[in-house]
């Protein structure tokens, strides 16, 4: 058997081999947050907020106003369906074989009965969404959270989750199988999904980035609470009941994916 078809994939993953051991070493402060890059992070946060005001909000508002809700929901469903194989890969890497079978069945149902994922009959059949990502895989393997970071465009993250994001992009099963222009269509569907999410949860999102006295600190707290809740780790020390409730309901999750 030849490894030629796998060489591009192996080349991509090798880029991260030397980086993995360096992430997750930051020491949290008394508040449970490690933020040694705060000055740089705040700069990127301000840039992202300015970009949201100038571009993302107007585009998402226009998209939500012009495109009918059923069509927006259908396109988001297709995007979500195309992301399921990536979750299956991470389920296997985490040895969660039950979830891997569950997500495989969900993909099969929505890709066929759901007409390529346009509809979501799988949820009605008990095959609800079970996300998994490589940041979670690294956590399962014992890697620490690392320092808090703010990424351009993407927003809040940690060193561990930033590395996980890069690996998820490189190892995306569907993306690696698609050629051009199909790969561009997949990207377009993801952008439409994010625009729809920004439109649907506009009030909640803007209450954090526009109405907070310190939107950077509030976004950092909300993100870390939410992510730690997902992983089953302690939330940020000193977080109030409102922050814990926000984490429990994952209200900002779509903005961090």
From TrEMBL:
GO biological-process terms attached to the record: intermembrane phospholipid transfer
Keyword Signal in record: yes
PROSITE patterns linked: PROKAR_LIPOPROTEIN
Signal peptide bounds: 1-17
Gene Ontology CC, one term: membrane
InterPro entries noted in UniProt: MlaA (IPR007428)
Keyword Aminoacyl-tRNA synthetase assigned: no
Keywords carried by this UniProt record: Lipoprotein, Signal
A Pfam family that the UniProt record links to this protein: MlaA
Superkingdom, taxonomy of origin: Bacteria
Similarity comment: Belongs to the MlaA family.
Protein name: Phospholipid-binding lipoprotein MlaA
Organism: Celeribacter halophilus
């Amino acid at each position: 058997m030849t490894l030629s078809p796998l060489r591009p994939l192996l080349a991509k993953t090798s880029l991260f081999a030397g980086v993995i051991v360096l992430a997750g070493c930051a020491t949290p402060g008394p508040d449970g947050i490690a933020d040694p890059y705060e000055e740089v992070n705040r700069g990127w946060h301000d840039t992202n907020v300015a970009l949201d005001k100038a571009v993302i909000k107007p585009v998402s508002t226009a998209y939500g106003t012009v495109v009918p809700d059923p069509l927006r929901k259908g396109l988001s469903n297709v995007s979500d369906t195309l992301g399921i194989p990536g979750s299956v890969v991470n389920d296997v890497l985490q040895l969660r074989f039950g979830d891997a079978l569950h997500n495989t069945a969900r993909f099969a149902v929505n890709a066929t009965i759901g007409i390529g994922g346009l509809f979501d009959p799988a949820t009605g059949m008990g095959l609800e969404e079970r996300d998994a990502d490589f940041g979670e895989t690294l956590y399962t393997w014992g890697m620490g959270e690392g320092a808090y970071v703010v990424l351009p465009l993407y927003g809040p993250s940690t060193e561990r989750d930033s590395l996980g994001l890069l690996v998820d992009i490189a190892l995306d099963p569907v993306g690696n199988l698609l050629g051009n222009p199909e790969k561009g269509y997949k990207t377009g569907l993801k952008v439409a999904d994010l625009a729809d999410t920004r439109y649907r949860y506009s009030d909640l999102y803007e209450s954090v980035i526009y109405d907070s006295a310190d939107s950077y600190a509030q976004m950092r707290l909300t993100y870390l609470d939410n992510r730690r809740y997902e992983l089953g780790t302690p939330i940020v020390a000193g977080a109030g009941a409102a922050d814990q409730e926000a984490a429990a309901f994952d209200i900002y999750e779509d903005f961090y994916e």
